[in-house]
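Predict the 3D structure for this chain.
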Amino acid sequence: MSYKTILVCLSTEEVAEQILPIACNIARQFGAHLIGIHTLPSIMVYPGIAMHLSAPQFREFNDDMKKQNADIEALFEKHTANETFVSEWRSLPARDPNASMQLTRSAFRSDLVIVAKADSTSERYDQSGLQEDLILNSGRPVLVIPEGYGDKPIGNEILLAWNATRQSSSAAHQALPFLTIAKQVNILTVTQPHRASAALDTEGHELSASLAHHGMKPVVLHVEQTKDSIGEEITHQAKISGSDLIVMGAYGHSRLHDLFFGDATRYMMHDATVPVLFSG
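Done. Predicted structure below.
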């Protein structure tokens, strides 16, 4: 199993500069076909609000969006020009008020999706909630890159957060391409206060035995929760173990049903300082 089609979502020039080096490293590592994708936003007109834009204003907006698209494409070409893997550029006009829906549909045919961590100060109005939509609705593993991570290695030391649920099982199996080539895999299980479980005590070892069939030698870390939240405990354990990738399941509901992420998922989405591979 390997990642052979990788989709990297490039919403702005800043995002492109931030995550393209990482996307290229991963595509090179797996010999993958790397697709850079950008959606061209459209002017939003809301019912009930009087709004008139002249033809010159429409032209100016469209020209600005075309220039931004060309600038991001140029960055993509610059980063991939001398690579041996196959690369492909796609720019799509947004067909929905929420461009996240179109990007999610594009992700259906990918093995891995790479996206920058949400930044409320710079994200596009039509891509608010993009990360959540991709994680919960695409059915694909989504690698979220924190701001300022640079092009440091990803996946040498992996922390796999495990709680024996469908979501954590999906994450573990969708991360196999990373897990099988990692130098070290640590399986983390956390006992929460007043929720001790004999089954959870052994679950990490059961998963370790399963992953050993893939040639791995995982180490099981079963800890008592000492931090205020599970998310903080995961990031703490990642820090002390020197992990450069966290793998975990994501918990929540569709945005169409008042999206509510689990506390750990929400914390990791916004506060993790190393890349996190999510699976919903």
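The beta strands are 5-9, 33-40, 87-93, 112-116, 142-145, 157-161, 184-191, 219-224, 245-249, 276-279.
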